[in-house]
Amino acid sequence: MASIRKSAREARGAVGKMRVPRGLPVVRDREADGTAVLLVEDLKVYYHTAAGPVKAVDGVGFGLAAGERFGLVGESGSGKSTIALALMRLIRPPGQIEDGAVLLGDTNLLDLSEEQMRRMRLAEISLVAQGAMNSLNPVKRIKDQILLGLRDHGVRLSDAEAASHIADLLQRVGLKSGVAKMFPHELSGGMKQRVCIAIAISLQPKVIVADEPTSALDVVVQWQVIDTLKRVQEELGAAVILIGHDMGLMAQAVDRLGVMYAGKLVEVVATRELFGEPLHPYTQLLIASLPSLEGKSDLRGIPGLPPSLLHRPAGCPFHTRCPFVMNQCRVEEPTLIEHRPGHWAACHLYGSEVSA
Ligand SMILES: Nc1ncnc2c1ncn2[C@@H]1O[C@H](COP(=O)(O)OP(=O)(O)O)[C@@H](O)[C@H]1O
Ligand code: SF4
Ligand SMILES: [Mg+2]
Questions:
Q1: Per-residue pLDDT tens over the stretch 260-307
Q2: What is the CATH number of domain 2-350?
Q3: Ligand nearest to the CA of 74
Q4: Is the peptide bond before 317 cis (omega within 30 degrees of 0)?
Q5: Among positive and negative, which fits the CA dihedral 7, 10, 13, 17?
Q6: What is the number of alpha carbons within 13 Å of residue 14 lying toward its C-beta?
Q7: 194 in ligand 2 pocket by Cβ < 6 Å?
Q8: Ligand 2 in contact with 149 (CB < 6 A)?
């Protein structure tokens, strides 16, 4: 695998780490020097519809430490998949990246040509897209689907090398080498999702983005897929952005969580602190709506609907549903501020001064 990695890398030049500018929520305790492998700054992605621009992602920024597992949670429609696609430069019309930067080492992915970006995908940053397991090509054997990505990056392998690389990848994700010759319809949902993970790690990227990789799988298989993702990520030393809406699953899967609401990050903090002491009222409601530990169904849900992304209301995007709404919230939008070390929230309840 190492030599394959090298040949794909030579075409692009190395990608290093960078210092994190102040004001971006990046993990502190892992890397004392505050470096990150990926930095997203003020990302804005709009879908230009006949009714006007849908502001799906409206000024999102975060940093990702090497080897970190970062989760993005939020209700459906909050912009999670749009972020994933924007990081990969896979936003299609009517969608458009309006502003911001996606820094991988010294490279701003948003500045690259299509061809340069094509070479970054899989080799530096890869995506297990939402619903990817249902998008496997039904008439191609698994080995051919894996090889396609490698060829796309100029990786040329003899038949023997290809067979050995594919067997290694399948074994890494917990599949037998015989799966290589099979077609997608011969595999269970969990196996297909493992194949998608194998494709995503086939060129040992530094960052893996996995968008709801366990939705549509039953609970036991969900945990198995998460365990597989964690294992391969640790083996590779890659950082992961895991997108999901199941807070319980995310609590076990990631080091740090970012809570999305209406196209914005409203809270970012280490997972344990998020569950122990959530600051943002939306996060508090999300956690309160989880089934209780005793397994009793206590799913309260959050009353009301998220605001229209087409006609954003003034002030805090959560003010129409917030139990603590104040006059200020209806007119002034709160910014994401580090209220405690490593704990960021966008809410007027905590003032606008950095107290850390
Ligand atoms: N192709 C599109 N055209 C118009 N609006 C879109 C398109 N794709 C997504 N959106 C809108 O962007 C918002 C964010 O969507 P998405 O990123 O898929 O959210 P999530 O993954 O959190 O469910 C939603 O309001 C959605 O309706
Ligand atoms: S800013 Fe105001 S409306 Fe928004 S979450 Fe905080 S208290 Fe609620
Ligand atoms: Mg989505």
A1: 999 999 999 999 999 999 999 999 999 887 776 554 444 456 888 888
A2: 3.40.50.300
A3: 1
A4: no
A5: positive
A6: 3
A7: no
A8: no
